[in-house]
TrEMBL record:
This protein's UniProt keywords: ATP-binding, Nucleotide-binding, Transport
SMART domains: AAA (SM00382)
Entries under InterPro entries matching the protein: AAA+_ATPase, ABC_AA/LPS_Transport, ABC_transporter-like_ATP-bd, BCA_ABC_TP_C, P-loop_NTPase
Gene Ontology, cellular component aspect: plasma membrane
Protein name: ABC transporter ATP-binding protein
Function, as annotated: Involved in beta-(1-->2)glucan export. Transmembrane domains (TMD) form a pore in the inner membrane and the ATP-binding domain (NBD) is responsible for energy generation.
One GO MF term: ATP hydrolysis activity
Domain (ABC transporter) ranges: 5-253
Top-level taxon of origin: Bacteria
């Protein structure tokens, strides 16, 4: 079967910094796939390579079997690759509605050169866009803030508007860079549900970077783990999180992990207990 995405031997260097070293993995069509790893592991870098923001120093990227390594970001969006950003990238002075409309920009076919037929075509097109945008607003429960200025919204809502904008492009593959960062428990739960639904109901293949292991365990089909720019594990979430290499990457030395429970104050050494 053709993969939705294949990352093949990708390396990325910034001067002396090796952000990625020979990273390979493949994402199946329809999968909800997570990328995890400690800070600075290279997670955003790999997403930037997929979206076209960074060009790998070595290696290749395939989207539905097609080599996209050399394509510019604006050539990837029309193929059906959408994304959100780790640091919000909304137009703060624009309304929620207009921010979402921006997401459809590349889908606008009409321009001012089409002459006499412009108005008719443009009106029909505008209606189609509005309909699609309304569908997304309903899906993400953004009705009550549709006219609000994006910059005035809570952080959690702004993350949701950014997801709406990425969805407006109608991507087949959506890249989410920490969609739940900085959210409270309830907001995270909502966001996790939207992500599952856009995967299942809208049929989008999802590649998500997320630090919350509970969420990753709950909703991902498979996980890849990066550490210092290298892939250290890949597989189903439970197996990956039980992997000693992964524990070591997150918690330091493996020995520490194994002896940690004995060090807990609630479980003092026997000698201390008798004293
Ligand atoms: N544009 C850049 N210029 C120079 N170095 C960069 C650039 N982007 C990333 N790096 C470096 O590449 C490495 C990986 O960074 P990256 O942002 O991909 O990590 P991350 O896993 O997303 O981390 P975090 O969890 O903190 O978001 C880091 O050492 C980072 O400093
Ligand atoms: Mg990052």
């Amino acid at each position: 079967m053709e993969h939705a995405l294949e990352v093949r031997n990708v390396s990325l260097r910034f001067g002396g910094v090796r952000a990625l070293s020979e990273v390979s993995f493949a994402v199946n069509d329809g999968e909800l796939f997570s990328i995890i790893g400690p800070n600075g592991a290279g997670k955003t870098s790999i997403v930037n390579c997929i979206s076209g923001r960074y060009r790998p120093t070595e290696g290749q990227l395939f989207y539905r079997g097609r080599d996209i390594t050399g394509l510019k970001p604006n050539a990837r969006a029309p193929l059906g690759i959408g994304r959100t950003f780790q640091n919000l990238a909304l137009f703060h002075h624009m309304s929620v509605l207009d921010n979402i409309m921006v997401g459809r920009h590349h889908l606008l076919k009409n321009n001012f050169l089409t002459g006499a037929l412009y108005w008719l075509g443009a009106r029909r097109e505008e209606l189609q866009h509005r309909r699609k945008v309304e569908e997304i607003i309903d899906f993400l429960d953004l009705q009550s803030v549709r006219k609000a200025t994006a910059g005035t919204l809570s952080y959690g809502l702004r993350k949701r508007v950014e997801l709406a904008r990425a969805m407006a492009l109608e991507p087949k593959l959506i890249l989410l860079d920490e969609p739940m960062a900085g959210m409270n428990f309830e907001e995270k739960e909502d966001m996790a549900r939207y992500i599952v639904d856009l995967n299942e109901e809208f049929g989008m293949t999802v590649v998500m970077i997320e630090h919350d292991m509970g969420v990753v365990m709950d909703i991902s089909n498979r996980v890849v783990v990066l550490d210092f720019g290298r892939k250290i594990a890949e597989g189903e979430p439970a197996a990956v999180l039980a992997d000693p290499h992964v524990k070591r990457a997150y918690l330091g030395e493996e020995d520490e992990v194994l002896t940690y429970p004995d060090d807990l104050p609630s479980n003092p050494p026997a000698a201390e207990r008798v004293a």
